[in-house]
Amino acid sequence: MNVLGIETSCDETGVALYGSVQGLLAHQVHSQIEVHAGFGGVVPELASRDHISKTLPLTEAVLKEAGLNRRELDGVAYTAGPGLAGALMAGAAIARSLAWSLGIPAVAVHHMEGHLLAPLLEREAPAFPFTALLVSGGHTQLVAVEGVGRYRLLGESLDDAAGEAFDKTAKLLGLPYPGGPELARLATQGDPHRFHFPRPMIDRPGLDFSFSGLKTFALNCLAAFSEEERTPQLKADIARAFEEAVADTLAIKCRRALQETGSRTLVLAGGVSANQRLRHRIDREMEKLGGRAWYARPEFCTDNGAMIAYAGYLRLMAGEQTAPGFTVRPRWPMEELGAAGV
Ligand code: KG4
Ligand code: ZN
């Protein structure tokens, strides 16, 4: 079975092909950084338009890369939520039209399920069950994972997602969009001992997070200095302390989650899981616990079509398909998903 995957939930158009025999056959991502950079963030209307113009050319490109023609496709998977309504509609409309014209099934994929399963695309992959930390621009969630679609939410952010905190803090440090990777780059130059940020909610029981206070803390650090004193070094020091606090907080909560589930297998997914300092901090924690953390390669941590093709492939293989229609769900709790094929 060859499945085309289409991801258009935010500011990246991702298209990929996944096949039963060889696994991932081809994948391409078009980033909209240039479209949104001048605005300092994602402009939903522009995102939708860009997805419309890029999805079909990328589809042609992955088919060519895989040496397949459209007639050799057996299914189409597309992100139906959560995400920006117009951006989701663009991908859904193209995916459904393609499937309809080819007479093949289509399946609506949950974006966060795509992220969650992305580490399973790697040659060496974890087995179910495991505990997952999903850290993206819109979500920070700890999830007990029994199998595809069998998810139990253990805890989540009560305000900003970890990626959102990175982006907002980057913005107030004057870094360009997209802020997370820029802040991480700047932090490598920073002194980890100059500032000490709080580790939010670690002294409270439970597995929820709160990251919105960290950007305020960063703002207060910056405000204590005059305009002339706000040197690149000062900003790097703040960035470093911020990053340490996020990594530390996430690692502490992961340890707590593993103690609760009894699992020693942790899967990290979503854009923030590309962060090197977080990976090191988590690896240290797992060493102490006698377990192991699994990650996707960095390009599959952030938004991509491969994770959608793969999640869709698993669901199509289980006999699932989504009835024709263009319904998307900009808000869509992952626990509402059923086990694959059920
Ligand atoms: O998963 P993703 O690509 O999109 C969403 O589903 O939201 O995650 C994007 C988020 C952004 O907030 C971005 O700043 C953050 O992931 N991010 C990073 C890094 N790479 C991406 N944050 C910290 N360090 C990174 N290296
Ligand atoms: Zn994402």
Task: Tell me about this structure.
By secondary structure, this protein is an alpha/beta fold. The protein folds into 2 domains: 2-117 and 300-336, ATPase, nucleotide binding domain (Nucleotidyltransferase, domain 5), CATH 3.30.420.40; 128-295, ATPase, nucleotide binding domain (Nucleotidyltransferase, domain 5), CATH 3.30.420. Helices cover 42% and strands 19% of the residues. The protein has a 5-stranded mixed sheet, sandwiched between helices. The chain has a 5-stranded mixed sheet with strand order 8-7-6-9-10, sandwiched between helices. The longest helix has 30 residues, at 232-261. It is globular and about 65 Å long. The two termini are 20 Å apart. The structure holds 5'-O-[(R)-(carboxyoxy)(hydroxy)phosphoryl]adenosine and zinc ion.
